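Hi, here's the filled form for the chain we discussed.

Project: internal
Contact: R.S.
Residues: 144
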Amino acid sequence: MKRAFTVLELIVTLTIVGVVMAISIPRISAINTQNKVQRAANVLQQEVQQAFAIAGRSRQPIKFLWMSDSLQVRVTNRLETTVYRKAGLGKGTFGFAATELTFYPATLTVFPNGLASDTLFMKVSKSGFSRTVRVSKSGMTRLQ
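And the returned structure, exactly as it came back:
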């Protein structure tokens, strides 16, 4: 006598697998979105910390710029002729839209003495998940 699965057993097994997948796929998608928001906020925090470090090393003012047209942050010299660092948040890397990113102000000047021209507020949000990076004039960064 041959041992095999019956059609009924296969249908029950496939139904259970289908139900489990239907329940888990939205949760996996939400976890991926949450991770993407967290990683983008970490990148922003690192980039602004690097701007303060570059200003101190090079002994010249550095600009931290939000480029809304290309969805990039850039760390440049004051005249914007030299780009030290850049990080994209758009389609190529994180896939954010311009409406999901908030920067105030769009340009921050970091001086060699370790002080900035203003405080900086950066917010990344997507599908109900959000992270905020706040930077004080003295370069203290806080990720919330």
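Let me know if anything looks off before we file it.
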